[in-house]
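Q: I'm building a small set of examples for a reading group on sequence design. Run inverse folding on the following structure and report the sequence directly after it, with nothing in between.
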C-alpha cells in the first residue's frame, strides 16, 4: 500500500520544491475529513508524513472524524496517541464532508493549509509542488484533476457538472478543481469568517479571491472502489453549488414567462381566426389539455427551484451550527468572537 503513488508520472510544473531556507519558521497543516476509512488510515498517514518531512516545514495532520463506524475513530485516537503531530476532531455524528472541512480548517494552525481526501485518491506527492507555488506568491493552489479513475457514467456527470457550473456561476470556478489544494492562512481566516451554512468549498475558495493558480494532479482510483459519498449525496452537493453560486435557475423563468406569453397570445390569435374568419370548429380538448399540462409542469418546476433557494434561506436564518464536536485529541478549543463556529487550536 505504501507504494500506491510511486509509479505516478509527475504532471506538475517545473517549480522546484521548497528549500530548507525557504521553509524555515513556517508550518503546514493537512486537513482531511474521515468517514469509514479504517483500511487506509495508517498508509495515508505514513504517505502524508513522508511527503511533508521532505519539505522541511513544521507540519501537522488534522483529521476530522465525521461519525465513522468502522473502527476509524479508534485508529485515529491511536495514531494521535503515538504522534502529537496527528490531531483529531471527532464529530458527535455524521454531518457531511463540507462541515468536516470547516471544522478541520478551524482546528488547523499552519501558515499554509492543504485540504485533501482521506481515501488515497489525492496524491500526497503533490504537496511539495503546492508548497513551491505558495512560496512563489500564490495564496490558493488548487489541484486540476487529470485522468479520473471512476466509471464512465460518473466521469461524464462530473465533467458535465463542472462545466455547467462554470458557465452559470457568478464566481468563476475552474473546471475539474475539487477540494484538493493549498490555501494560505489569510484565505483560511476569510473562509472561517463567512457566515454561510450551505457550503461548497471549491466555490468559496475561489470567491474569496487572492492570487490563485492550478496544478495538474492525476487522481487515483479508490482503494476499495466503494465511494463513501452516495449518488444522491453528490446530487445534494451539486445543488448546493448551483444554488449558492448562481441565480440563473431563477432568471431562466423570466425567459419561460416570455415564452408562455407568446404561446398564450398565439393560441388567442389562433382561436380568434377560426372563430371570426374560417368558420371551422376550434380543435377540442386535446390541445387544451396538452397546453395546460405544459404550463402546469413549468409552474411546478418554478416552484421547485424557488423552494431550493427558500430551503437555503431557512437553513441560514435558523442559525443551527453546521457541526457539533464530541471530543478532540491533541486539539485545544476556544470560541471565536467574530464567528458562530468553534475555533480549535
Amino acid at each position: 500500500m505504501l507504494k500506491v503513488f510511486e509509479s505516478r508520472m509527475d504532471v506538475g510544473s517545473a517549480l522546484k520544491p521548497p528549500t530548507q531556507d525557504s521553509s524555515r519558521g513556517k508550518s503546514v497543516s493537512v486537513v482531511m475529513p474521515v468517514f469509514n476509512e479504517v483500511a487506509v488510515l495508517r498508509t495515508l498517514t505514513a504517505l502524508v508524513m513522508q511527503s511533508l518531512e521532505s519539505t522541511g516545514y513544521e507540519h501537522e495532520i488534522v483529521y476530522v472524524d465525521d461519525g465513522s463506524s468502522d473502527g476509524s475513530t479508534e485508529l485515529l485516537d491511536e495514531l494521535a496517541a503515538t504522534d502529537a503531530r496527528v490531531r483529531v476532531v471527532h464529530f458527535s455524528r455524521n454531518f457531511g464532508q463540507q462541515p468536516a472541512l470547516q471544522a478541520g480548517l478551524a482546528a488547523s494552525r499552519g501558515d499554509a493549509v492543504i485540504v485533501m481526501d482521506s481515501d488515497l485518491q489525492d496524491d500526497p506527492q503533490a504537496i511539495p509542488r503546492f508548497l513551491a507555488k505558495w512560496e512563489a506568491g500564490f495564496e490558493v493552489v488548487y489541484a486540476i484533476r487529470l485522468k479520473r479513475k471512476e466509471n464512465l457514467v460518473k466521469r461524464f456527470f462530473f465533467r458535465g457538472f463542472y462545466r455547467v457550473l462554470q458557465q452559470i456561476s457568478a464566481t468563476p470556478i475552474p473546471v475539474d478543481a475539487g477540494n484538493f489544494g493549498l490555501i494560505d492562512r489569510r484565505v483560511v481566516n476569510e473562509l472561517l469568517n463567512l457566515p454561510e451554512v450551505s457550503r461548497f468549498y471549491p466555490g468559496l475558495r475561489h470567491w474569496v479571491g487572492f492570487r490563485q493558480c492550478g496544478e495538474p494532479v492525476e487522481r487515483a482510483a479508490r482503494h476499495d472502489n466503494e465511494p463513501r459519498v452516495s449518488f444522491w449525496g453528490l446530487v445534494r452537493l451539486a445543488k448546493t453549488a448551483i444554488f449558492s453560486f448562481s441565480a440563473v435557475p431563477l432568471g431562466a423563468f423570466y425567459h419561460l414567462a416570455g415564452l408562455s406569453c407568446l404561446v398564450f397570445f398565439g393560441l388567442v390569435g389562433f382561436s380568434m381566426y377560426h372563430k371570426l374568419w374560417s368558420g371551422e370548429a376550434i380543435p377540442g380538448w386535446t390541445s387544451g389539455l396538452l397546453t395546460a399540462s405544459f404550463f402546469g409542469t413549468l409552474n411546478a418546476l418554478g416552484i421547485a427551484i424557488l423552494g431550493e433557494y427558500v430551503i437555503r434561506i431557512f437553513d441560514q436564518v435558523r442559525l443551527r451550527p453546521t457541526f457539533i464536536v464530541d471530543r478532540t485529541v491533541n486539539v485545544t478549543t476556544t470560541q471565536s468572537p467574530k464567528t458562530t463556529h468553534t475555533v480549535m487550536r
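The chain has eleven helices and ten strands.
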